[in-house]
Amino acid sequence: MWNHQQPSGALLNYIDKHPWDTFEDASGTALLAACTFRLASIVFGTHNPPYVNVVAAEKARVWVISQVGSNGWLNHVVNPYDWHQAGSKSPEGQSFVLMLHAAYRDWVHVTKGFY
After folding, report:
1. Which residues contact 109 (CB under 8 A, 6 or more apart)?
2. Is pLDDT at 30 greater than 60 in this prediction?
3. DSSP string spanning 87-105?
4. For 85, how many CA atoms within 13 A lie in the half-sphere containing its CB?
């Protein structure tokens, strides 16, 4: 998935569709970055760990944070009632941001010894 990351740091709502059928999706980007940081935290320091693209996840994390509006809602999300359309509010997206924050916090703790 990280091979399809946009220059902004975002992932698209559909990776395998035409550019005119897609848009940057902050919810999915947050979820996949959270999973990447979580895996990286689990395998850090193990003998012969798998490759985990933390650089791409960090770029995504910075982009996701920039998408949180002044009202606290995540922008650039998928419409939870119609996955083919952009939406304005996504409860799932909100939870993915929290998952991303927790996974990143743990990654920092594991790799640097502090939060």
Report:
1. 41, 115
2. yes
3. ES--HHHHHHHHHHHHHHH
4. 7
